[in-house]
Write a structure and sequence with these properties.
- The chain is mainly alpha-helical and about 160 residues long.
- It is built from six helices and three strands.
- The protein is elongated and about 50 Å long.
Length: about 160
């Protein structure tokens, strides 16, 4: 097999997605979302096989289902008086673990910043960090949804070609 026919193109999706033409088959690749996802996401993809072809999408769906609830709980807890920094830290710890499970590195990093503000009992820092977490979550959600939409368009036959190369 020769790879001299390999080249990258961008097709109507955010720049972070590449579609490579390899042996006349479309094969989606994720360049780790330019800092949004880390190696954990790639490791999840390696666990996916023909017996569980949607494994990664299902794991990500769980994150996308659970994380808005956590963000809402964090926002509600910040709004209560007196502030319960222990509860805030616990909620953010859950969000950080959930994000880490799919490799959401920016979410994980911002959760660490939030936790540091909790340790310092810095309410304004927590509020600013929460806004950043919400923006990171929205961006990550959009990127992941676009990625899985692209995978569905490519279809299982082309993905199978990728797993054999």
């Amino acid at each position: 097999m020769t790879y001299s026919n390999t080249f990258s193109i961008v097709i109507g999706v955010p720049f972070i997605f590449q579609v490579m033409i390899l042996c006349d088959a479309l094969v989606p690749t994720v360049p780790i979302f330019l800092g949004y996802l880390d190696e954990q996401f790639n490791q999840l993809e390696e666990l996916q096989d023909e017996s569980s072809p949607n494994f990664v999408e299902e794991v990500v769906a769980l994150f996308l289902k659970d994380s808005p609830r956590l963000l809402t709980n964090i926002e509600q807890t910040i709004g209560k008086y007196p502030q319960d920094f222990y509860r805030l830290d616990s909620l953010v710890h859950q969000l950080k673990g959930s994000g880490s499970s799919i490799g959401a590195v920016r979410m994980k990093n911002e959760c660490s910043v939030f936790k540091a503000y909790c340790n310092d009992k810095n309410l304004e820092g927590c509020r600013r960090s929460l806004q950043k977490m919400k923006r990171e979550h929205a961006t990550l959600k959009q990127k992941l949804e676009s990625y899985f939409q692209l995978l569905r368009q490519v279809g299982p036959r082309e993905r199978a070609v990728n797993s054999r190369t």
